Amino acid sequence: MQSSTRIRTAAVAALLGLLAVFSGPGAAQAGAAEPDTTVGDLTGFSADGAVYHLKAGAAEARVSFVSAETFRIELAPDGTFSDPAGDDIVLPQGKPPRTRWKERGDRYELSTADVTLRAYKSPLRFALYRADGTRVWSETKGLSWNGERTTQTLARGADEQFYGAGMQNGRGNTSHRDKTVEVGVDYNWDDGGHPNSVPFYLSSAGYGVYRNTFAPNTYAFTDPVTTSAKEKRFDAYYFAGDSAKDVIGQYTKLTGKPFLPPVYGMEIGDADCYLHNANRGERRTLDALKVADGYVENDMPNGWMLVNDGYGCGYEDLAETAKGLQDRGMQLGLWTEDGIDKIGDQVKAGQRVAKLDVAWVGAGYKFALDGCKDAYRGIEENSDARGFTYAPESWSGAQRCGVQWSGDQYGTWDYIRWQIPTYAGATMSGLAYTTGDVDGIFGGSAKTYTRDLQWKMFLGTTMTMDGWAASDKQPYRYGEPYTTINRDYLKLKESLLPYQYSYAHEATKTGVGMVRPLVLEYPDDPKAATDAAKYEFMSGEDFLVAPVYQDSTERDGIYLPKGTWTDYWSGRTYQGPVTLDDYSAPLDTLPLFVKGGASVPMWPGIRSYQDRTAASPLAWDVYPQGRSSFTLYEDDGVTRQHRDGKYATQRADVSAPVRGAGDVTVRIGASEGTFKGKQSRRPYEFTVHTGSAPSAVELGGKLPRLGSAAAFKAAKQGWWYDRDDRGGVVKIKTAPLSTGKKFSVKLKNTSAVGGRNAGAEAVVSVPSGQEVGAGTGSTVAVDVTAGRSDVTDAEVGLDVPEGWQVARPAKAARIPAGTTRRVEVSVTPAKDAEAGEARITALVRYRSAGESRTATQRFAAGVMPPPPTGEAWASDLAWLTSTNGYGPAERDRSNGESGAADGHPLTLAGKTYEKGIGTHADSDIEVYLGGRCTAFTADAGIDDEINGYGEVAFSVEADGKVLWTSPKVTGASATVPVDVKLDGARHVHLKVTDTNGSKTGDHGDWAAARFSCS
């Protein structure tokens, strides 16, 4: 019933006519009713080098070896081969391998040095074996076909798992076993849709299959496995590998390695319509520069801007706009809704990003793939820049020319949840860059925007889009605390660009993207393929990201696989495998863990990559454990000169104890290679997470030890042990050093990550649900748990928001090993502290096992407003939380559209109310009463503006108990009187719930909603 929904539906519906013609080249006409036919006995065999022909009556199969582990099987039911995809997808592969064949009694064996394909004679049936005789896969029956599709049927292993099929919304990072997966355009950008499908899957048995077609596919990973394509021909490439990464590498060698984005493409992008924007009023293209100024003024990174992102949106003053963006450290992008005929002139005027429209799918994926390639080429042929495109629907091969984008979504918690497996799962199909708009393009809120932005900073690419939502969605629009949190995460991504860009380069060699499901890094972990790891992912090999996807300050079910993992924010270490529940995650905290042994290159303290100068430092964030290394990749970041060898690599090697005490050495190799702008000298910074202070730090000779953060900041060279930073961190800086020479930094008598006595580490936790009153003296409870050694001389302090007052640190003289002591700290929030979540950090200094250490923990406390008195209207109270099915819940108005205060007068059964709350199911309004109120009264019903539609139920809950529930209410129901006793209730929830599975018209009103209080 909402107007923005109608706009979106109309925009997509205009394209859905394409589905009627979409079936892909070579597909049978609709209505064909040909029965299934299975290939018969082998009647002829011939060999021509690495190509083999096998006849079975009128049908003919052809086997062509591409490499020692890659080959192609084709089947023509009528004996005539066709190749609709031609050279659109598969790239030239060079000289085929040496092969041999042998006839045995029941079969032919076609072999390379690595694999043998068996072709059984009666009936014709294929099976693949490795050189050591182990079976990879086998058909349970021969290839079959009818007038619509061609199908292969494979035996399924007892523990065999399956992945791939491209971007499968809400799925893909865990196994497809027992599931049916569709591969083809559906314009469904919600959970369960499959935009950017790829006709490729891989198996844990060590093989992958690519169906060489533009036709839709269906893969049923049941027992047996049946995979079909909607065409009367069979054409598939097979890859046999030692690992999933190996198989992805072979597949992307065949169809193209992922492209290397420009550095600005890995920064966040911004999209909106500026010329002829129906949602924002008339603006000019140059108005985009005012938005760009907002990023600069708020000290926020932004790499590029689409200035015409909206149906019917045009542009003007292109060259001036491009120059203005470049002056602000950004690049110009355009949406190609109207095609790319003008891309040459647009690129010459400054365009560097091309976002393709869903209309580019046209009558099939060939059109979409050609659009991606042509837009990419259009940028490169008219500038010295790298091609950089975004595509909402694409196909195999698009990884070499664009970012795959998951379409138009709403900003909701559920949207965050199902996008987590989507992008990690797409990596299993060779898609190195997949993403979605931050907080969607419809709806959204300050909190969902902030939570969504946090984890998307650990994707390679992402963007934020305005225009379709009720208000603009730049990360600085929501005010505090959201602006500061968003800035911190945007700048964290900026500092991590050397790490992420190195993985981008690695993908051009291996085909494996940075965003990875756990099973790709931990294939032998029995939980990695299951739902235990569904809502988390690896960002490179070193970061495990577990986004918060509920309106909560805690996160459950975080699975950490085998190894040592360090909490990025607190420095607390965990030994996997372990599952974490009740992880404290206030709004500013993304659950983020770093793998033991990590060495992460960083650019500290920048807003844009263009802020880097010849004198800028390179920082290494080191989590020492055993022997480990990382190779940094560098080039000029924007041109194509790296393809001609203009780049450099520099390797960091770390040697440390596997656990406990010892020396730590960081060896930085010489930077090998050259490119324009390469630093010949630069200072280095090291942050080494040891948990124990070294006796000395050596770089040639001993570096000076500095006594404070201020002294360290002022010094040109030296080191400082900061015991209060994430469990204890050694901070080191050097004077500028030649990048052409290797050097070593040695930390004497320190430890691996976790400290000399990791088991003696104290753990800080904070009970959830703690409340404090604005301007009122309160206490906060902090639990300190000793490790394997006693904790002594513990002092517990709090880092609180500005304007709050904290008493002196509370003390605990001794906490015996393995026990927990609760300590209460007195705190007084500011009088004007806003109701809701307040983010606090507990800091505990203590001694254990002969060392002075510090433990920290971030947490959220609820700031409660003064409880109401007398007769209080619900719409006049502060709302602790407010969730709503569409847009914000409204005070003294009906729900309206997606903006604030855009509803109409509250009207039930012809009666208009001045006071009340207008909602849209599902809705939940929480208010704080502090035990002071005795009753709640209201008139409940569906607003008259809906004209009889809708079906909901109302309920009142208090302190976890349901006090009252209405009967089912429809748009035609009489008004329901509400009169609920509240004696002693502290927290009350007013809920409106959909009852028929349809949210259409569910505008539930709490009219004349009032609390009676003492």
From TrEMBL:
Keywords: Glycosidase, Hydrolase, Signal
Similarity comment: family membership: Belongs to the glycosyl hydrolase 31 family.
Keyword Protein transport: no
Residues covered by region (Disordered): 884-907
Stretches assigned to the Glycosyl hydrolase family 98 putative carbohydrate-binding module domain: 868-1013
Signal peptide: 1-30
Record SUPFAM superfamilies: (Trans)glycosidases (SSF51445), Galactose mutarotase-like (SSF74650), Galactose-binding domain-like (SSF49785), Glycosyl hydrolase domain (SSF51011)
Domain of life, per lineage: Bacteria
Protein name: NPCBM/NEW2 domain-containing protein
